[in-house]
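To assess whether the prediction recovers the assembly geometry, we first specified each molecular entity separately, as shown.
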Amino acid sequence: MISEYAFLATGAGLVGLALLRLATSADLLMRVLGLNVLAVGIAMLLLVSGMGASGTDAVPQAFVLTGIVVLVGVTAVLLALAERIAEDRDE
Amino acid sequence: MSELSLLVLLPFLAATLTVAVPGRAASLGLVATAANALLVVSLCREIIARGAVEQVIGGWAAPLGITFVGDGLAAVMLAMTAIVSLAITAQAMSTPGRAGFWPLWMATLGALNGLFLSGDLFNLYVAFEILGLAAVGLTALAGTPMALRAAFDYLTAGLAGSLLILLGIALSYSVTGRVDLETVVVLTESSNGRIALALIAAGLAVKAALFPLHFWMPAAHSSAVPVASALLSALVVKGALYLALRLSIEGGAGAEFLRSALAVLGTGGMLWGAWNALRAERLKLLVAHSTVAQIGLIALAIGVAGDPLQNGLWTAAALLMLSHALAKAAMFLAVGRIAEALGHDRISGLNREELRPGAAEFAFAIAAISLVGLPPTAGFIGKWILIEGLVDEGAVHWIALLLLGTALSAAYLSRVVSRCLRGGPHVSATAQRLPWRSGDVAALGLATGALLLGLAAALPLTLLEVPFA
Amino acid sequence: MSQYLPLAILMTSLGIVPIILVMPESARRLRTGVNLAAATVKVALVVWLSFEVTRGNSFDLRHSIAPGLELHLQADPLAVLFLALSSILWLLTTIYAVGYLEGGTDRSRFFGFFSLCVASTVGIAMAGNLFTFLVFFELLTLATWPLVVHRGTSEAHRAGRIYLVYTLGGGLALTLGTIWLYALAGEVPFVPRGVLGDLPETAPLALTAIFVLLIAGVGVKAALVPLHGWLPLSMVAPAPVSALLHAVAVVKAGAFGIMRIVYDVFGVETLQAMGLAMPLAALAAVTILWGSFRALTQDDLKKRLAYSTVSQVSYITLGVALISPVAAIGGLAHLVHQGIMKITLFLAAGNFAEGQGVKTVRAMDGMGQRMPGAMLAFTIGALGMIGVPPLAGFVSKWYLGAGGLDAGQPMVIALLAGSSLLNAAYFLPILYRGWFCAPTEGAKASRRIGWMLAVPPATTAALVLVAGLMASAPFSPLGWTRFIVSLEYL
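The predicted structure of the complete assembly is given in tokenized form:
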């Protein structure tokens, strides 16, 4: 039980911190990182929701896996965009 | 029946092929959009004849599998997408495109179709992700620093929205152990369930550019290339609005808290968008802010329609979405043509001395009539249905707001049309109208379609009556 | 086949709109040909239709849009009255406009919207229910805006903006009233003596509010005080547009709307029982006096005519609101009479401006010598407006006065006398200057007036005479009007 609450608190804390960062930071890289932290926080919350008395539910884990795949893709696109923006700025 | 999965598969297949054979991308895209339109027509006929259709892919039910459901609302959204698609494809073929347009466009189409057909929340999330990525690609396609910056902001906002949706889905799964859409009504019965729904709705508000979470949108829609702007404004934001409407329908009476929020935020968007459109100096920006206002109007319509299981006012919101999709796509295409002919899109410079208004300006004017919602457009029929229902409920304040929104949209759109009508001393005697060109066909066709859609409103209204299985 | 007559009449003007709009500017002959052919065909079709209607045939074309919402075209005698007026005057104004805009710019746009304007008027005439009426009424607003701003000057745009604010605002009021009434009563078809059933007893307050909204909506176009502000400003438009706006399309659409609302939605008995007829009559009386009063001080010829329109159109409203069959005959006949008289005045005024550059009352000196034909037409129109027998205007005023007595409102006689005096006070100085003052030095012809400009005002002037002299003939406006009124009051 204790570990469940620990996960829950950590996850919620990460989500909160990430949202704060996203709302206040203008730096592109910082925002990409913020989004990744947000995703990790949400993944933790998802995993907690799969913990039950009768063992671990596979469905939230499948959600998390899909989320991670999407996140990797989106991060790549974001970094590429940030790179292009930085190039334009340097010219 | 395999039409449902074909509707999703076909565009994605086309997207892959257009990457593999870039030389033939345009013709592949044309074949795919045409086939998509035919599939949608046959699906609509089937739904009218036999009711909603359902398909469980590979025999795996939700939550792990994928279920597609085609009911009346989904069919209307698919038809809306198919009609706009034909025009977008036609326009993209007549203008020299940029590399990457076709795969992104086909992926957008596939994601939209998947979104409208999804029968479970998780599948909806996946469709949103694909849609978001493709849409960001379309925004960045213009390649200008402004467009890149807008694309970055769009993707960040979109991802934050998706994550909120994902969180909401996870919470709803932990409450009910299901993710299919029928679970929504169960969710409305517990406080954790309502938090889950609120999280999903918050994510949708970001994606739909609903006030005050629209901050990313005017820049993205106004800095993209014209066909992309048309797509983003007409179709992509509709995905999130569609899901909001779907939640309202599935949630029934219990989703009233969502509807109240939508009504309030919608009002804010309608007024704020109109205010900015009244002050905009650039044409594209004006049209983008008008999208903020129109999204507000649609959200307001969903919000004040009341329990969809009790009355049919929600069909008004669907009609408004349909009307807005056609008219706004026409408008962005027309604006693209105008800016191309003038070399700029400043509103004060629309009455250029040596050029008379031509087909593009005319298309803009017709689209404006639809957006304002004057008769006989579908927007008018939508507002009619809504106001008639609100009169019955005595909801005077909502009626007043709807009329105010209508008046404001007339005010900001007539700013543009009035410029286009300038003649006489403002135009030199030798000025000529641009000759009719193939590039104007799509905008003019869509605008005319939006105008006449009201006369054929019986068809979407019949479709909308087909309930979810 | 003949049941599609209403649609055919609508399409003769609506169908040519896209054709004309896409024509290149240089296709002058083709454009003129299409315009005149369509206008002529329309007159022929309307004549055919009116024969069918007198033989007792009815027409009904319906298209369902949503449950309880349908577009409905029909041809009752009242519709035929308005159709005949607009189709004949459209033909004449088209001829005039072709001559007037010779060498002008943006003619395809002009004639495209000109046709759309007439199409909306025809749709308003044949609307079979309030929804259809609303659709064409709003279409009329959109169609006339580009005509008002046709000259493209800043002044024209200012007038256009004000016109839009007034008419779209009125449109919103009309829309709200219509939807409200549909929510209360279901489908609202136009049926003589009204369709409200027992609503006046069950929801009197809501009905009163609806009546106010509807009348305010159509009252903007009918230029009822205080909603008339757009009309004098719209005078910046070219002469054929002014003629059309003032004689046929816009103000008449408003007056016609008042008729439909009073006769075919509420019914005179209901209206009287609800105590709404008197306020409407009072508003009409105020408008009649105020318009005439303002006309006195206008030096700009077209503006003087515009205020005269404000005043004269309310004769129609007065006739409708007095709740007396005799007054109703006067009001309805004035719909046609005022139309032909006012178009004569505007077309003649347009000729003064084109031929001699004369746009103000002050410059009218000696116009009888300089342009005797146009001046004669103007004189007939003006005398008709004053109500000199045996011209058309006399007939309407006679019936209005008798109707006032019939309704137990002898004040109407005083009102008519006062208004006629004011009419005389603002028209006679123009006639005096035209016929009896010597032309001022330096006045010279700026342009030759061709037959296309000369024939239409001459024709309408002749119609003013004929409508007055032959008022008792069966197909005269008055005769037809009696037929209509018998449907409402019998």
